[in-house]
Design brief:
Blueprint (H helix, E strand, L loop, with lengths): L1 E6 L14 E2 L2 E2 L5 H14 L6 E4 L3 H14 L4 E2 L15 H7 L3 H9 L11 H18 L4 E6 L1 H12 L14 E6 L4 E8 L7
Length: 204
């Protein structure tokens, strides 16, 4: 399988003290105005890329980012819940953004140890790895020899590329909004072809 991992476009800003809506416990903000423009750019970029299937997660920012491409290709996106973002425990609903920006001591420790579950109640790296790996395997089993666009999240993209390259856990946790990363998935190996391609966003 030729897998294109597309990070969702920019989502709405977090306002201190006002939690995002939650979907199964995960913060679920919609795209911002810029994010909607980024979604159009992704659609333009991939419209002629030979996409056979489109996947989204249970969170609306991926659905909204995939919509322009799905409309152009007349493909109905499929939901793969295993590719939803890492669960951030007590920092869900947007609080993560605020506390990372404030360089909170727990955030410092999280980055130093490269573990999400330093955050109280957050998903462990082992659990996150397991569900993301299983999701990619499901896609590969369903789409042998095909090109698939999976609209997902920064943490997921980072995890997939870390697994494929056998790198540090957080080595690829820097994917930009609406960026494209590409992997080739075979029966016995995952090959990284590109990371954080933003050529379609350069003049946004």
């Amino acid at each position: 399988m030729d897998l294109l991992l597309v990070r969702h476009g920019q989502s709405e800003a977090y306002l201190e003290g006002t939690s995002f809506p939650l979907a199964s416990g995960h913060g679920d903000p919609p795209l911002s105005e810029l994010g909607r423009r980024q979604a159009q750019r992704v659609g333009d970029r991939l419209a002629t890329a030979g996409i056979d299937a489109i996947y989204v997660t249970t969170l609306q920012r991926t659905v909204q980012t995939a919509a322009p491409l799905a409309g152009r290709l007349q493909l109905t996106p499929r939901v793969e819940a295993g590719l939803r973002e890492v669960f951030l425990g007590e920092w869900e609903g947007g609080l993560y953004r605020q506390l990372v920006a404030e360089n909170h001591p727990i955030a410092q420790r999280m980055f130093a140890e490269e573990r999400w579950d330093v955050i109280p109640g957050a998903e462990s790296l082992v659990a996150f790895d397991g569900r993301v790996r299983a999701a990619i395997r499901r896609l590969a089993a369903d789409h042998p020899g095909q090109r698939v666009a999976a609209f997902t999240h920064g943490g997921v993209i980072g995890q997939v590329l870390a697994m494929a390259s056998d790198s540090r856990p957080f080595a690829f946790n820097t994917a930009d909004n609406a960026s494209i990363s590409r992997l080739i998935i075979t029966a016995d190996r995952w090959w990284v072809r590109s990371f954080n391609d933003t050529a379609h966003l350069q003049d946004q």
